[in-house]
Specification:
Blueprint: H1 10-23, H2 33-36, E1 40-41, H3 51-65, H4 69-82, H5 112-125, H6 132-145, E2 155-156, H7 166-172, H8 180-188, H9 194-200, E3 208-210, H10 215-219, H11 233-242, E4 253-255, H12 267-275, H13 280-283, H14 289-299, H15 305-318
Antiparallel strand pairs: 1-2, 3-4
Helix pairs in contact: 1-8, 3-5, 3-6, 4-6, 5-6, 9-14, 12-14
Amino acid sequence: MSGGELRLPRRLLAMVFVLALRASGGGLVAGSPEEETLLRVGFYRAKCPVAEDVVLAEMRAILEEEPTLAPSLLRMHYHDCFVQGCDGSIMLRSRSGKGERDATPNRSMRGYDAIQRIKARLETVCRLTVSCADIIAMAARDAVYLSKGPWYDVETGRRDGDVSVAEYAENDLAPPDSNIVDVKTFFSVKSLNAKDIAVLFGCHSIGTSHCAAFQKRLYNFTGRMDQDPSLDARYAAELKKLCPPGGHGGGAKVPIDPGSGYTFDLSYYRHVLATGGLFQSDGSLRDDPVTRGYVEKLANASSPDDYFQDFAAAMVKMGRTDVLTGDLGEIRETCDGFID
C-alpha cells in the first residue's frame, strides 16, 4: 500500500465485484428462496428411501477402517460448496492436472475414494438417483455425528456439475494465513456472515495440518524472519519443535485442536481464545467483535447444545450455496469421472 491507495489481491477484487453484482440484483444469491424451494429434507424419500441409511452405514464402516477421514470429508463439503457451489465438482479428475483436485488448497484433500465407495453402493440400490453433491453433504454430516458431534437434517436435491477448474479453487478458498478482513470477504461472497464464520470454523475441532500451512506464523510472519506476535509463546515453542525451520518437519501432522483432534466439541474455541489457534485465520477470529464474542461465549460454555444448534443451521445454510437443482446439472453414475 502506498500513497494512500488501497490495492487488493486480484481474487478479492473479483469477490467485491460479485458482491456488487448481487447487490444490484444480478443473478441468484446463494441460499435465495428460488434455490431453497428445490432443496428439501427427505428429497429421496420416494425415489430412494434407503439413501441416507446407506450413506450412514458406509460412513460407519469407512471411519472404523480409517478414523482420520472424518475431518477430511467435512472439509470436502466446504471446499466443494465454496467453488462454484455445492455441485460435486471437487470429485472430478483432470488428466491435464487442471481440475479442482489439482488446486493447491486441495492437494492434501483425502476422502475421494470414500465418496466413490458410497456412490457405488447407492448405485446398486438406486441407479442414477442420488447425486455426488448430496453424498458429499450427507457424508460431512455423518462425519460430524460419528465424531460425537450433532446430528442434523440435510437438505437434498442437489445435482452434479460437470465443470471443475483448478483456478476457481485457488481463487475461492480462503488460505490458512488469511486475516479476518479477507476471511469475511471470502465468506460474504457466499452469503455467510460473521457469525457463520465463527460457527463454521468450529469444524477445526477435528483434524490435523501439515507444517507448511502455518510455518509462516512461526518463522517469517511479516517477511522479517519474525513470529506472529498474536500467537501464544508457549504454544509457538511447541509448534517449533514439531515443525523446525526450513521445512524440515517431514510428514508431521499437527492437531488443529490439541488434545481433542477427533472429537467434535468446544475445545477448539478455548484453544483459539487462549493461544491464537494453529492457523492465522483461526487467530483472526479474535480480531472482529462478532467473531470474538462468539469465541468467548463458546470458550466459557458449559454445554455444547447451543453450538450444535448453530452449527446445524450454518451447515444447512452453506449447503444451499449456488446449488444446481431441477433440470440443471446431472446425476453421474460415478463421482470421479474425467473432465478431459
